[in-house]
Specification:
Elements: H1 2-17, E1 25-29, E2 35-42, E3 46-52, E4 55-61, E5 70-76, E6 80-81, H2 85-92, E7 104-114, E8 119-128, E9 131-146, E10 153-164, E11 177-191
Length: 192
Amino acid sequence: MKRLLAAALISGSMMMAAPAFAAEVAYKLDSAHTETSFVIDRFGFNSVIGLFAKTEGTVWLDEAAPEKSRVEAVIAVDSLLTANTTRDEHLKSDRWLNAAKSPIITFKSTKVEKTGDATAKVTGDLTLMGVTQPAVLDVKLNKLGTAPNNQKKQAGFTITGQISRKAFGSANAAGMIGDAVDIRIEALGVAQ
């Protein structure tokens, strides 16, 4: 009986001493606090700044092994805003983003490379106007913790990158409207 009790105690203490294996946590993007913005040169005089107000998706964050993290996101093209309704309609038309034919922009990660304590390069497939191309985004984890307003675990990110619009089939006004499109996403994920 003493041997059985000793074995049980040793086994129990070994289980308690064993490290806990962290699993990935799914963070659903909060569309009210996630905005995808872009900047593109216009005639060399200035840049147009716009944003997509509707972004949805999920970040699966693995704190123990960040390189195993992944993300899938969908942006509604018709949520585009540039502070000018005429320009918004032009950009949503078949001449530019063709929202009627390609109503969403998608991103699905294929690789995460940790670059610092809170930074990573995320490579993925970006689909825009029906064309899929690889894209590399720089991701900074701003904060991971419990939100003071609702006590839910949240993760905040700043994401930046650049794409070539020509690579996605948009060559209108070449030489007048820039090819490089700078992207910035302020994203908030809520643990599920």
